[in-house]
C-alpha cells in the first residue's frame, strides 16, 4: 500500500511538474508556409492601376481629345496657338492697357472648345477663371488684371447642345514646356489636359 501511495505521489508530482513546465514555457511555434505569388499576381499587386485619363496630372487628356466633366461640359484643348512676342502682341491688340509679361515670363494663348452635353443644371457657365495651368509642378492662374475688349477669351453660358470656341491666356516662364491645363468644376473635381 505504501508502494502504491508512493507511485501515486510520484505520478501526481510528475503531472504537476509537467503542467508547470507547459504553463511557464513557450509552446512550440508553427512555421508559416509562404506561397510565392504567381507572376501575374506579383504585377497586379505591385503596380497600382493608373488613374482614368484626365483625372490626374500624371495622366492628362491628350491634346485634341475631349473629356466630359461632371457638370456636362465637354472640354477640348486644341493647343498653344501663340506664345512670347506674338502672344503679347495679341493681348495688347485686345486692349492696349493690358500689362507686359513680367521679367523672364511670356504669355501663352491656348485654343479651347467647350460644348455643353447637358448635365446637372439647365445651363452651364464657363470662364477663364475655371481654368489654370501647371508648369513644372506650379499652378498658374489666369492673369486677373487682363482687360479684354473684343478679344475671344473663352467665356459664356450655354444651354444643352451649344458650344463655345475661345482662348485662355496665362503668364508662364519663357520657353516652358510640358504645360498642363486644369479645368475645375466649382466645389467638385479637377480635370487635366495636355497642351503638347
Describe the fold and architecture.
This protein has about 200 residues and is of the alpha+beta class. It has a domain of about 130 residues: Immunoglobulin-like, CATH 2.60.40.1240. It is about 20% helix and about 30% strand. The chain has 3 helices and 10 strands; from the N terminus they run ααββαββββββββ. The strands form 3 sheets. It has a 4-stranded antiparallel sheet. It is elongated, with a radius of gyration of 34 Å. It starts with a helix and ends with a strand. The mean pLDDT is about 80.
Topology record:
Blueprint: H1 2-24, H2 39-46, E1 66-68, E2 73-83, H3 84-94, E3 105-116, E4 124-126, E5 131-135, E6 138-141, E7 156-158, E8 163-173, E9 180-184, E10 190-194
Antiparallel strand pairs: 1-2, 2-3, 3-8, 4-7, 5-6, 5-9, 9-10
Give a short overview:
The protein is of the alpha+beta class. It has a domain at 66-194: Immunoglobulin-like (Sandwich), CATH 2.60.40.1240.
CATH topology of the domain at 66-194: Immunoglobulin-like
Query: Radius of gyration, rounded?
Result: 34 Å
Order of strands across the biggest sheet?
1-2-3-8
Discrete helix count: 3
**What fraction of residues sit in β-strands?**
25-35%
Helix content: 10-25%
**Mind telling me the CATH class of the domain at 66-194?**
Mainly Beta
Q: Characterize the biggest β-sheet.
A: 4 strands, antiparallel
**What is the chains' assembly state?**
single chain
Low-confidence stretches: none
* CATH architectural type of the domain at 66-194: Sandwich
Care to count the β-strands?
Answer: 10
Give me the secondary-structure category.
alpha+beta
Q: Estimate the global geometry from the Cα principal axes.
A: elongated
Q: Taking all residues together, what is the mean pLDDT?
A: 82
